Amino acid sequence: MAEAASTQVKILESTRIKPPPDPPNSATEVSLQLTFADTFWFKIAPVERLFFYQLDNSTSTPAYFNSEILPKLKHSLSLSLLHHLPLAGNLKWPSDSPKPFILYTPNDGVSLTVAETNADFDRLSSNGIDEALELHPLMPQLISSYDSASILALQITLFPNKGFCIGITAHHTALDGKTTTMFMKSWAYLCNQENSALPIELTPFFDRNIIKDPTGFDLDMLYLNQWLTNDGSASEPEITKNKTLKISTDEGEAPNLVRATFDIRPEDFKKLRERVLLSKSSEEEQLHLSKFVLTLAYVATCMIKARVENNRDVLFGFTADCRSRLDPPVPQTYFGNCNTIFTKIVKAADFMDENGFALAVKQVSDMVKKLETRSGVFEGAKEKLTPIFHIGPIQLITVAGSPHFDVYGSDFGWGRPCKVEIVSIDKNGAISMAESRDGSRGIEVGLALKKHEMERFSSLFLKNI
């Protein structure tokens, strides 16, 4: 691991980018109600993504960047917000409203910070092991108060004579990873065009009426009240205190963690699949052996073993997109959250021997199979949040991102990203997943662990890959 160094940034500009004032719709107030898929994420920390872009010698000078690249990024951002007006607005929660809602009003805009740093671009955008906190100065913060919270914040940081990065922080109550990625692609698309029109596959769909509560339990208010009452255990003063949109700035374990990225290549999946098929457990039933299942099972097994001590519980799971799984199906361009989670609490000791990987595959496969039927998607919907409030000390292994988001497709005109990070995994125990940046059809996995655990994980991971 490189010697720890704090990333120093110089703030050059703090501004607010608004949609263009000319089109009539930018002068119109827009309000969106939260669905049960939104309130489910009410107190979850904002999602932070970082896109690194390498430039050549002629385009990476401060003079060229500030005169050519930055103005183009700002202009195309404004055009993109015209198609995503709610992103320029805020979450609002008036005292007389039972739940928050999204509100855009004319003159609203997205906070944009422009910065510069002399940090090592090549190291920060590599797969190597580095201090987790080094990426934090490259990320913007959402602005929040008791009754209002911004939905999106952006930061563009120049690494002179090397490249730049775009940090995007998104409020999970308002949008999921698929919506955030679509916005980035829309912004990139318009940065390459001379008009403000978006293709149909990048045009957001805003009608919230298409999200139907399949249970009849009023899940939107059920989830919100579970957050406010800590699932029924809070006193009245605590409930009042919890009824706020103020975002916590707690960095959690991040100051004690290092982060790294690991690649699983197509030939590795072949070996992992063969390993499962040779195990006894695979004979019991038909397993779902997708790249996602193999990745989560293998990484989770290595993470569990990396902690050595086995007398503990582990919660692992993932979030699944539900757009194509609802009845009727929801458009792929739906703006907002349209997903559900699947979790499983297991004993670490069960995964410590040579059959641990095969067992993990079976556990993940069983969860994935629930997605094959619409009834399985929302099975146990009322209790989906319960584990968050009732578990004690536990190892969390969840998934942020997806290999299907195509995050490396966000090309603003100066090439595809050379690295995409989900910075916020250092706050919530998640691992990140994305498609391999080299187009090899592999999967790259990002982790944030304590240094000694990362060293053990790396040894375990490379042993069978």
UniProtKB/TrEMBL annotation:
GO terms for molecular function: acyltransferase activity, transferring groups other than amino-acyl groups. It comes from the Eukaryota. Keywords: Acyltransferase, Transferase. Gene3D superfamilies: Chloramphenicol acetyltransferase-like domain. InterPro entries: CAT-like_dom_sf (IPR023213), Plant_metabolite_acyltrans (IPR051504). This is Transferase. It comes from Corchorus olitorius.
